[in-house]
């Protein structure tokens, strides 16, 4: 019974580790990319960094170097494009540089100093959806003879996390039964 309890505990802790939210230091841990006006031609360095990462709901962005004279504003897409600082959704100041990504979809951040934003001090982050389904965006155009509908499978779709969970349960059961 003790072996079963320890196996179940191990599986549970492994599942928690897979689903754990992450903190991302904006620009990267080793980067000299801080929340400042980009120099020269390097106007999209933070957006390039964001494109290289996969953000999930629950993750957090951490700004380590917001100057006391600046701030980070979460804004709408329209305000992001126009660098409008007067109607932020949320404002992060130098002593509060952590933002939790609480939903899937795009987030837009700009400098609280409008002239800095116009010089490229802004960031767009896209948070992945919780479920990835292959859903067509629009129906296919009608043809003369419609194609027959595909047969529905009686099997169910299992996502990557589901497969990982099943594999962990199987490993736990095998180790319980044979060790």
UniProtKB/TrEMBL annotation:
Record's keyword terms, sorted: Cell membrane, Disulfide bond, Glycoprotein, GPI-anchor, Lipoprotein, Membrane, Signal
Does the record bear Heme in its keywords? Answer: no
Q: How does it sit in the membrane?
A: Lipid-anchor; GPI-anchor
Where is the protein situated, by its record's location annotation? Cell membrane
* Entry-linked Gene3D superfamilies: Cupredoxins - blue copper proteins
- Indicate the secretion signal residues: 1-21
* Location (main, coarse): membrane
Q: Which InterPro entries match?
A: Cupredoxin, ENL_dom, Phytocyanin-like, Phytocyanin_dom
Name all Phytocyanin domain ranges.
22-129
The molecular function GO annotations come to: electron transfer activity
Q: Does the keyword Signal apply?
A: yes
Among Pfam families, the record links this protein to:
Cu_bind_like
Instruction: Kindly state one GO CC term assigned in the UniProt record.
Output: side of membrane
Task: Give the family, as the similarity comment puts it.
Answer: Belongs to the early nodulin-like (ENODL) family.
Protein name (Swiss-Prot/TrEMBL): Phytocyanin domain-containing protein
């Amino acid at each position: 019974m003790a072996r079963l309890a320890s196996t179940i505990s191990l599986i549970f802790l492994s599942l928690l580790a897979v689903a754990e939210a992450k903190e991302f230091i904006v620009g990267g841990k080793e980067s000299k990319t801080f929340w400042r006006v980009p120099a020269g031609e390097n106007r999209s360095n933070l957006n390039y960094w964001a494109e290289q990462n996969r953000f999930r709901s629950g993750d957090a962005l951490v700004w380590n170097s917001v100057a006391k004279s600046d701030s980070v504003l979460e804004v709408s897409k329209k305000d992001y494009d126009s660098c409008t600082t007067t109607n932020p959704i949320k404002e992060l100041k130098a002593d509060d540089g952590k933002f939790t990504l609480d939903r899937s979809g795009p987030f837009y951040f700009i400098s609280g100093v409008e002239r800095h934003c116009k010089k490229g001090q802004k960031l767009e982050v896209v948070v992945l959806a919780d479920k990835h389904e292959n859903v067509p965006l629009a129906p296919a155009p009608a043809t003369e003879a419609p194609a027959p509908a595909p047969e529905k499978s009686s099997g169910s779709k299992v996502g990557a996390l589901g497969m990982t969970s099943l594999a962990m349960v199987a490993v736990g059961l095998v180790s319980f039964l044979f060790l």
